Amino acid sequence: MKNIYxxxxxxxxxxxxxAKIIVDNGGVVAVPTETVYGLAxxxxxxxxxxxxxxxxxxxxxxxxxxxxKNIESIKKEAFINKNFLKLVKKFSPGPLTYILKxxxxxxxxxLANKGLDTIAVRIPxxxxxxKLLSILKYPLAAPSANKxxxxxxxxxxxxxxxxxxxxxxxxxxxxxKIGIESTVIDLTTTPKILREGGxxxxxxxxxxxxxxxxxxxxxVKSPGQxxxxxxxxxPIYMNREKATxxxxxxxxxxxxxxxxxxxxxxxxxKLKDAAKNFFNILRIIKNxxxxxISVNKIPNKDLGKAINERLKRASFYE
Length: 318
Ligand code: AMP
Ligand code: MG
Description:
Layout: E1 8-9, H1 13-24, E2 29-31, E3 38-42, H2 46-56, E4 65-67, H3 71-75, H4 82-91, E5 96-101, E6 118-122, H5 127-134, E7 140-141, H6 156-163, E8 170-171, E9 183-186, E10 192-195, H7 201-208, E11 213-214, E12 236-237, E13 248-251, E14 262-264, H8 271-287, E15 293-295, H9 303-314
Parallel strand pairs: 1-8, 4-6, 5-9, 10-11, 12-15, 13-14, 13-15
Antiparallel strand pairs: 2-3, 3-7, 4-7, 5-6, 9-10
Helix pairs in contact: 8-9
């Protein structure tokens, strides 16, 4: 049988050097981050960025997040401001992405930010991507390592399931600690949350002592905000207590729920655990060929907001 996992590599120094050679030559590698696995390429190299779009079949209007090793390297590419400095000192490295005005002298490929006058920047925390960034002379553009619209990967094996051998190297950093994508905050005007994610917007609000409006404008500021996304390819029904015929049920905070079609996001009702398990459980259900997924009501607070945002987008199933 064909082994689909032979492109998964342990994060040894030797293998990270191999990954460096691939990206130095304009290739793409899959890397762990604390949020989800990313498909990474040299953010300065147009051709390398184009490869990410092709592999993911990502709509060309959807710009990428660029990953940096530190604040200094961000300053070369983007204008920073007071809110950025406050937030970055408190929450980075970590699951927070900042939208900043791009500098004219920035070397970031116009394909990565779709020619906008802004760029999305993040300093990840996961140690292996930081090790890789620290031996590179450029930042890495890295969207989630999955086909556009489908489930995000939280293990190296998930990435192999998505891309087989079309990605040469997948660095295995184990299970992602957070399990959902970064929170995206626009800092080019009054701070606005563009995407709920791994850092609860409530924590940011408390820290900045401002009320952060959720982005509801009809003008789409963040192209990734629209349409079907995070989808397991079968219908998802939110706020349900029962599965449909042939379907699976995802429960939250319930004990003694044992059946072949019942999956528990967190027995103890912890939203952090639910976020960490979320994409893995959806993927297991999909692989087991259930026909639909019904999901218990998830409290719409803290990381529950990010989970609900993803469930809503995943339930646009046509
Ligand atoms: P992903 O890389 O798939 O995790 O998605 C990145 C998210 O950041 C998407 O929702 C993008 O639309 C958003 N994004 C990236 N760059 C920008 C930008 N310059 N302005 C606004 N949103 C952005
Ligand atoms: Mg994604």
